[in-house]
Amino acid sequence: MTFLENWAEWLPHLLQGLGTSLLLTLCVAGIGFPLGLALALLSIAPVRIVRVLSIAFIEVFRGIPLLVVIFFAYFGFPDIGLVISAFATIVVAHSLNLGAYSSEVFRAGILHVGAGQREAASSLGLTPWHAFSRVVLPQALRAVPGPLMSFLIMVFQSTSLAFAIGVGEMTSQAFSIGSMTFDYLSVLVLAGIIYAVLCIASARIVARFEAKMRA
Amino acid sequence: MNTEADISTLFQVIGTGLVVTIVMTVVSFCVGAVIAVPVALMRTSRTWLVRAPATAFIDVVRGIPTLVWLLIIFYGLGNIVSLDPLPAALIGLTLISSAYLAENFRAGIENVHTGQKEAAAALGLSSAHQFWRVIAPQAVNIAMPPSASYAVALLKDTAIAAIIGVTDIIFFAQQEVARGAPAVTAFLIAGGFYLIVSVPLSYFSRFVDHKIREKVVVV
Predict the structure, then answer these.
(1) How far apart are CA B54 and CA B185, in angstroms?
(2) Using an 8 Å Cβ cutoff, are A69 and A61 in contact?
(3) B194, A60: Cβ pair inside 8 Å?
(4) Which of A158, A185, A200 sits opposite B63 (nearest CB)?
(5) Domain count along chain B
(6) Rounded-to-integer distance, Cα A177 and Cα B101, Å
(7) Mutation target among B2, B21, B59, B68 for the A interface, most CBs of A within 10 A
(8) Looking at the partner chain, which of B60, B69, B191 has a beta carbon nearest the beta carbon of A72?
(9) Nearest Cα to A85, choosing from A165, A175, A174?
(10) CATH fold of A2-214, please?
């Protein structure tokens, strides 16, 4: 039963790391989701060049691994005179990534609102901006919470990549305990259990929520 | 260190990782797909005792981040069987892709219209025949588009293997930066190499999606 004693000893460190993981998730969601909405709006903008540029941005960030973005920001930013903390680097890199991914969900939501709604709004004499902000957008946003919550779970898992640049989130904490005790297996398994429990539980909640939305 | 010659060397060095990246993607996708078939069959079983282990497998494998899996296999199991980085990464990525693909296959099987099964039963087909001749071919069509887009996600996930020392695209980019190459250039090149593979792959997955939408009505 020695490993259970060890687990009890390691748990506070891992939970401390978990706090950082969750904080990262919140920061990334706080910047990434609004960015995703902005990108979605730009990608259906009436001006062609705006559309092309924003779609290119989305495609590039969806096409390259998050880790490449993280390394680019971590090693590249200082070269161009931009020095930010490792934590901020993760938030910036991850938010760009999340923005590109979530823009598709926002865009699908906006396009899903029928043309009839737009026409009805404009025949009521609403200006295009009013028609969009008061009629189209509220309906579009009603369809997005489910998919966005699934993104949140993915973001939480990907915060483990912060390990690569030494931000002390849960995976880094587990690994540093492993490197001190040389017992990587049990501490990493413990961290894995914590990730799995949180992700499975939240996935269940999301599934229930989506079922309720559909009903 | 910014002359044209240096940049072309950088291209060559980072490009050597491309093969490893592609091998990891192809192997873990194909082997994962083979493992996913029995898992999906178990997952859709009506018997709880058969279904539960498959559900647990899918949930647990997908609930743990890729990096944590790779660290568990490479460092954690390292005390028991010492694996080289590449086999460790292949095992981890295959495990993960089998769970994701099993979930896609399950959705495929469950979304074949019940009328199809009833019609097959009414025609007097045995239950094995019902499954392999009627349900499975339609399930494959439904599962194909999400699986093709999963291939893109898997390609990007292979980058994580560089952390345990697999010599892929990003590994070489990092190595060149450590040797003094300009980081912005090196990681732009690395990103470019991923795009060379991922953009055609995602266009292909959209193409598959359109083709299949013409063919089946998904309920």
Answers:
(1) 45
(2) yes
(3) no
(4) A200
(5) 1
(6) 33
(7) B68
(8) B191
(9) A165
(10) MetI-like fold (1.10.3720)
Mean pLDDT confidence for B174-189: 93
CA distances from B153 to A103, B24, B75, B150, B158 (A): 17, 13, 24, 5, 9
| Angle ∠(A163,A166,A168) on CA atoms, nearest 5 | 80
How far is it, in rounded angstroms, from Cα B33 to Cα A110?
A: 35
| B90-125 residue pLDDT tens | 999 999 999 999 999 999 999 888 888 888 888 888
Structural domain including B211 reads 4-215
Query: Cα(B111)–Cα(B142) distance, rounded to whole angstroms?
Result: 8
CB A83 within 8 A of CB A76: no
C-alpha triplet A34, A16, B165: angle, nearest 5°: 80
Other Cβ atoms within 10 Å of A17 Cβ, number: 26
Q: How much is the pLDDT for B205?
A: 87
Please give the model's pTM, rounded to 2 decimal places: 0.90
What CA–CA distance (Å, rounded) separates A101 from B156? 13
Does the beta carbon of B170 lie under 8 angstroms from any beta carbon of chain A? yes
CA A146 vs CA A4, A26, A194, A206, B79: distances in Å: 37, 17, 23, 6, 42
Subunit contact B65:A158, Cβ cutoff 8 A:
yes
Of all residues in chain B, the one with the smallest CA distance to A74 is B183
Nearest to B17 by CA among B194, B181, B188: B194
CB B63 within 8 Å of CB B55: no
For the stretch A45-92, pLDDT in tens is 889 999 999 999 999 999 999 999 999 999 999 888 888 999 999 999
Judge: B194–A184 Cβ closer than 8 Å, yes or no: no
Record the tokens describing residue A70, joined without a space. 């993280």
Please tell me the predicted confidence (pLDDT) of residue B127. 84
Q: What is the CATH number of the domain that holds B198?
A: 1.10.3720.10
Q: What is the rounded distance in angstroms from the CA atom of residue B127 to the CA atom of residue B109?
A: 14
Is B163's CB within 8 Å of A71's CB?
no
> 3-class SS at B96?
helix
Closest CA to A87 of A135, A26, A147, A153: A26
Give yes or no for residue B3 having a pLDDT over 80: no
> Which residue in B14, B25, B11, B8 sits closest to B197, CA to CA?
B25
Count of residues in chain A: 215
ipTM of the complex: 0.90
**Residues near B129 by beta carbon (within 8 Å), at least 6 away in sequence:** B120
**Which of A78, A86, A76, A70 lies closest to A169 in space, CA to CA?**
A86
